[in-house]
Amino acid sequence: DRKIKIAPSILSADFANFGAECEAIEDQGADWVHVDVMDGHFVPNITFGPAMCAAIRPHIQGVMDVHLMISPVDPYIDAFAQAGADVITAHVEAGPHIHRTLQAIRAAGAKAGVALNPGTPANVIEPLLDMVDLVCVMTVNPGFGGQKFLDMTDKIRTLREMIGDRPVHIEIDGGVDPSTAPLVARAGADVLVAGSAVFKGGSVTNPQVYGDNIRTIREAAEG
Ligand code: DX5
Ligand code: ZN
């Protein structure tokens, strides 16, 4: 179904309070929790790993959507699956064997996602259309929250055409807010990651702001 899902990224959350933050965004309407794993090698930033995913798992009732900005990917797939990741997304740019990586993610029991950086064309996923449950279109260069949105409308439209009626989500990641959400939804996206646009101005002691931000993005996307 192409119902819009909002997936707040905890990269913009309080790093000293992840469990409470996950509960707060879910209470305030988040559909998925987007977990940005960074290794300081594939991207110029370091966040957290499988142990943190396992720690927050009990605080997430819904989908834990793990975005691996790491290279290599394969040695860590089982650890993230055991930590409770429902979706594990790997970057096509992270190594030479994305086909094998996606097989390994599904073999580990998680749904498989493939992420494309802004410089990577849509057609690279041609051979992977039946290997993935999700395509993540980066609309920023990965590594940080709060960056400026890069318009990937044509790429999203091309992907939606390639996917056809396969049950594959198109997830948009980076710079999503009430002004950019309608563009990507109209082009065919159905999962919208948002970090700064959800967490800005709120806190676990003032979570209503999260709810307002999530609602505003959702309403903008649904038009
Ligand atoms: C960037 C991450 C994104 C980021 C989104 O490398 O993959 O998920 O946290 O943050 P905003 O929504 O603030 O651009
Ligand atoms: Zn992400």
UniProtKB/TrEMBL annotation:
Q: Which UniProt keywords apply?
A: Carbohydrate metabolism, Cobalt, Isomerase, Manganese, Metal-binding, Zinc
What does the record say about how the cofactor binds? Binds 1 divalent metal cation per subunit.
PROSITE patterns listed in its UniProt record: RIBUL_P_3_EPIMER_1, RIBUL_P_3_EPIMER_2
Cellular component aspect of the GO annotation? cytoplasm
E.C. no? 5.1.3.1
Pathway given for this chain reads: Carbohydrate degradation
Recorded catalytic activity of this chain's protein: D-ribulose 5-phosphate = D-xylulose 5-phosphate
By its UniProt entry, which CDD domains does this protein fall under? RPE
Q: Which GO terms describe its biological process?
A: pentose catabolic process; pentose-phosphate shunt
Active site annotated at which positions?
36 (proton acceptor), 173 (proton donor)
UniProt-annotated binding residues for substrate: 9, 67, 143-146, 173-175, 195-196
InterPro entries in the cross-refs: Aldolase_TIM, Ribul_P_3_epim, Ribul_P_3_epim-like, RibuloseP-bd_barrel
Q: Where does a divalent metal cation bind?
A: 34, 36, 67, 173
Required co-factor? Fe(2+); Mn(2+); Zn(2+); Co(2+)
Keyword Metal-binding annotated: yes
The record's GO molecular-function terms, alphabetically, read: D-ribulose-phosphate 3-epimerase activity; metal ion binding
- Decide whether keyword Isomerase is in the record: yes
Q: Which Pfam families match?
A: Ribul_P_3_epim (PF00834)
Q: Which NCBIfam families match?
A: PRK05581.1-4 (NF004076), rpe (TIGR01163)
Q: What function is annotated for this protein?
A: Catalyzes the reversible epimerization of D-ribulose 5-phosphate to D-xylulose 5-phosphate.
Q: Which family does it belong to?
A: Belongs to the ribulose-phosphate 3-epimerase family.
Record's protein name:
Ribulose-phosphate 3-epimerase
Whose protein is this, by species? Pontibaca salina
Q: Which gene encodes it?
A: rpe
